[in-house]
Amino acid sequence: MLRSLIYDRLILRLTTQWYAAVFQRLAPGATVLDVGVGTAGALLAHERRIRECGLRVTGIDVDRDYIHRARARVRAAGLEDQVELALESVYDHAGGPYDAVYFSGSFMLLPDPERALRHCAGLLSDTGRIYFTQTFQIRRSPLLERLKPWLRRLTTIDFGQVTYAADFRAHLAHVGLTIEDWTTLDEHRSRAACLVVARPARSDAGGQEPRHQHQRRVRNPG
């Protein structure tokens, strides 16, 4: 239980705003796979939109403590008919088809992110998209590269590795995903919080470049 409390204290405010940026793009009745749902606090902060839009969400996480807290929250909200939770790895998940697969800062925590992308692309509906909200380091930072693993030992929360846009783009390109949209939600010093929307590449894509937008919406804590 302590781990989930620490998670909520450190992560929840930021990811709640990230969910808002994604959920406003989803069509009514959309089916969503939330990869790394955590304690579901950020998800259920949008309880009203889930209800009004008839969203159906499957949330998975590999942390037993997080899922235990998430299930309690879903029961308390009375959303068991729309939100299903599972203690499960993304690599083992066999649900779908989904209109949206969402990685809320969880993609670069995965031990094999490209394998996860290939698997999730196969879970999409014909018009499905993969959504990412992620903090990117704008300039190379050897200090942060050493600091992030240390933070995990201090807080028990996995903050992953420092993520650079070029590395992220390379992962998507290697598995044949096309970036449709790259929106900068906020910038703070040398970091940028971004929303990225991707889809499996199609032969009729026409080679269009992704749209790049800037929205001053999310404050990434320093």
List keywords for this structure.
222 residues, alpha/beta, eight-stranded mixed sheet
Which architecture would the CATH scheme give at its second level?
A: 3-Layer(aba) Sandwich
CATH superfamily: Vaccinia Virus protein VP39
- CATH domain topology: Rossmann fold
Rg over CA atoms, rounded to whole Å, is 17 Å
> How far apart are the first and last residues' alpha carbons, in Å?
26 Å
Strand content of the residues, in percent? 25-35%
Going by helix content, strand content and strand pairing, the class is: alpha/beta
How many domains make up the 3D coordinates?
1
Shape summary: globular
Number of helices: 7
Spatial arrangement of strands, main beta sheet:
3-2-1-4-5-7-6-8
Uncertain stretches: 153-157, 203-209, 216-222
Main sheet?
A: 8 strands, mixed
SSE blueprint and pairings:
Blueprint: H1 2-23, E1 31-35, H2 41-44, H3 47-53, E2 56-61, H4 64-77, E3 83-87, E4 98-104, H5 113-121, E5 124-137, H6 142-155, H7 165-174, E6 177-188, E7 191-200, E8 211-214
Parallel strand pairs: 1-2, 1-4, 2-3, 4-5, 6-8
Antiparallel strand pairs: 5-7, 6-7
